[in-house]
Specification:
61% of the residues lie in helices and 9% in strands. Strand 4 and strand 5 form a beta hairpin. It is built from 24 helices and ten strands. The strands form two sheets. Strands 6-7-8-3-9-10 form a six-stranded mixed sheet, sandwiched between helices. It has a four-stranded antiparallel sheet with strand order 2-1-4-5, with helices on one face. By secondary structure, the protein is an alpha/beta fold.
Length: 634
């Protein structure tokens, strides 16, 4: 998968110099990704405006504190002024209390906006993924998608809610503080502001280089998440093959890459902060020396010098916050780009919600159907014609990779089925709303998947309000009833993640029951008997015949013993129909199907004979050599 390996070795498209790869030179154009967040901000525009107004009031009240201090200091420093420190102290206390009340209220409002924007983004992200096709999931691994939905959305959250407010708040602090400074000491203000342009230049230049670091860090995090998710899904295989130490080593390498990317981003941010703080420290030095000389010369009072120092601190603090604000926005821009990379992916299957079919009988046809998987060197299916009459049971037989599963997936549009090639009751399936099509045509896939829930919840997944009677009918037809009766909690048994507590055959029969319970007009079974023995298979086929009745069924199998029960059999090879006919008719032709039947029949006969021989010998303890020989042959 294209995104899955992003953090294992190289740095990706934004990577550093390794093996000749040069990091892209970042610029402020990357912040343009943030404009895509405006629709989410507009939903909470009034709350944002009120919160911004509240924070500006807090900043305005803050400007009075140095004036109170100026009054108190001057009254204590000069004998001609009557001491006055109680009223300023009360004034500062009132300002602090009012500030605290407004600040707490506005921050709560901003946090609620932050949570709401996160909710909106993640909901849209999840909803969008639900309708993607196989090509999308080939590009983006599960772990990568999880990383984008969690980590990247978290990066976006603060900038989308609080970031814009902080920028306006910082700007207003700078302007109000500067206005007070000019009011009290215009000449000193001019000298104190000399270093600030250099602070802005340092922040701007360094911010332009931040984007690649944050992008790399997010991609490395996605690689770690993908690795962990895939590893945990395959933990049984890892343990069975005693590869725990190998996987720990791989995870260590992946985590090391992520740690290195985090360290580099943090180091760059630290350099930026040090550079800006170093240049801003020049202004207090100017105030200390030049302002102090003005105080000694009697041109400034001590209180004015003190208040001026506080205002300068506010102004320089607002300038240094530019670096923090830019780093927040750059990180959010990197996250936004990764989020909308997913949201911009168009679904492969285009839905038409307007077509409303009438009563469906279950006639399924493939007319000159061809399909090539993206990137494949040759077509998977080449110009095949398959006709399934209403109520007919049709089997497809063929080697692994011959294209059988592709045919069934095309019937429910899990692939981007070409228009004019697959028809349901003479209606092109591309005209059906996808949801409606998949209600009419049910596919039971080859790989059984169960949710981490009870058996009942898995079997009634599409309609949890079903009663017990249809559940047990489907369970009995799928040959799962004895297994469920043996469970202490019956249908309420929790099957664990991906059905891990069940065997392969049990999971396969459970997914078959989940398909049968829908009672669809057309049922497609993709090799649903591969993990069951022939005796269980016979019971399931009898249950299918009883439960399905006159409804259309198409099944894929590798066993002639399964296919022989069908009304018609298609032999598929290399994406083409090799043979078609009934079981007897195909045997009479003496072709591929007849050869396969002969091979499989001999295998079944050999197994049956050996089983009988073992059974007879085990009842006679005296014939040990013969028993050993029979077991060796078996």
């Amino acid at each position: 998968m294209a995104m899955r390996g992003g953090g294992y070795g190289g740095y990706g498209s934004y990577g550093g110099r390794r093996g000749g790869v040069v990091r892209e030179r970042s610029s402020m154009k990357h912040l343009g990704h943030l404009k895509r967040l405006f629709p989410y901000l507009k939903r909470y525009a009034w709350v944002l405006v009120l919160a911004l107004a509240g924070l500006l009031i807090v900043r305005a009240l803050m400007m009075y504190v140095p004036q109170f201090m100026r009054t108190a200091v001057d009254s204590l420093a000069y004998e001609e002024i009557e001491p006055n420190y109680v009223r300023p102290a009360i004034g500062i206390l009132i300002v602090v209390l009012v500030q605290a009340g407004i600040y707490i209220t506005t921050r709560r409002a901003l946090r609620r906006i932050s949570v709401s924007i996160t909710y909106d983004l993640r909901k849209r992200f999840f909803n969008h993924i639900q309708f993607q096709g196989p090509s999308f999931f080939n590009r983006f691994g599960t772990g990568d998608l999880m990383s984008r939905a969690v980590n990247d959305v978290r990066m976006v959250r603060m900038a989308a809610s609080y970031g814009w407010v902080m920028v306006v708040q910082t700007l207003m602090t700078f302007l109000m503080g500067l206005a007070y400074m000019l009011y009290m000491a215009p000449g000193l203000t001019g000298w104190a502001l000399i270093p600030l342009p250099f602070v802005g230049i340092v922040g701007w230049v360094m911010a332009r280089g931040m984007y690649p670091y944050y992008r790399e860090r997010q991609e490395a995090m996605a690689a770690v998440t993908s690795f962990a998710q895939e590893n945990l899904n395959g933990i049984r295989t890892i343990q069975a093959m005693a590869q725990e130490d190998h996987e720990i080593g791989r995870f260590k390498r992946s985590s090391t890459v992520y740690a290195q990317k985090c360290y580099r981003a943090t180091r760059y941010q630290a350099f930026m902060d040090v550079g800006m703080q170093t240049t801003t420290h020049v202004s207090p030095l100017i105030i200390m020396f030049y302002g102090g000389s003005l105080v000694l010369a009697g041109e400034l009072t001590v209180g004015t010098w003190t208040a001026f120092s506080f205002y300068l601190g506010m102004v320089t603090m607002s300038v240094t916050q530019i670096g923090y604000s830019l780093s927040m926005f750059v990180a959010a821009a990197a996250g936004t780009e990764r989020i909308f990379e997913i949201l911009d992916a168009e679904p492969e299957v285009v839905d038409d919600p307007h077509f409303q079919p009438g009563e469906i009988e279950g006639k399924l046809e493939f007319r000159g159907f061809s399909y090539r998987h993206p990137g494949a060197p040759r077509p998977t299916i080449s110009n095949i014609d398959i006709h399934v009459a209403p109520g007919e049971t049709v089997a497809m037989l063929g080697r692994v990779g011959s294209g059988k599963s592709t045919i069934l997936k095309a019937a429910v549009r899990l692939l981007d089925t070409p228009k004019g090639s697959v028809f349901l009751d003479d209606h092109d399936i591309c005209d059906f709303p996808v949801r409606k099509l998949r209600e009419i045509v049910t596919l039971v896939p080859q790989d059984p998947f169960l949710f981490s829930a009870s058996l009942r919840e898995n079997l009634t997944y599409d309609d949890p309000d079903r009663g017990d009677e249809p559940i047990w009918d489907a369970v009995e037809a799928a040959g799962l009833e004895p297994t469920i009766r043996d469970f202490a909690e019956g249908l309420d048994t929790i099957v664990g993640e991906r059905g891990i507590t069940l065997s392969g055959g049990q999971k396969q029969r459970a997914t078959l029951a989940r398909g049968l319970i829908r009672d669809a007009k057309v049922l497609l079974l993709d090799d649903c008997f591969s993990s069951v023995d022939t005796e269980t298979e016979d019971r399931i086929l009898s249950g299918l015949e009883r439960l399905r009745g006159a409804k259309t069924t198409v099944l894929i199998s590798h066993r002639v013993s399964t296919a022989r029960h069908a009304d018609r059999i298609y032999v598929i090879d290399n994406g083409r129909v090799l043979e078609t006919g009934t079981h007897e008719g195909l045997l009479a032709k003496g072709g591929y199907y007849a050869e396969l039947e002969a091979v499989q029949s001999n295998q079944e006969l050999d197994r049956s004979r050996k089983s009988q021989l073992l059974h007879s010998l085990e009842t006679d303890d005296d014939d040990e050599p013969a028993l050993a020989a029979a077991r060796g042959d078996a």
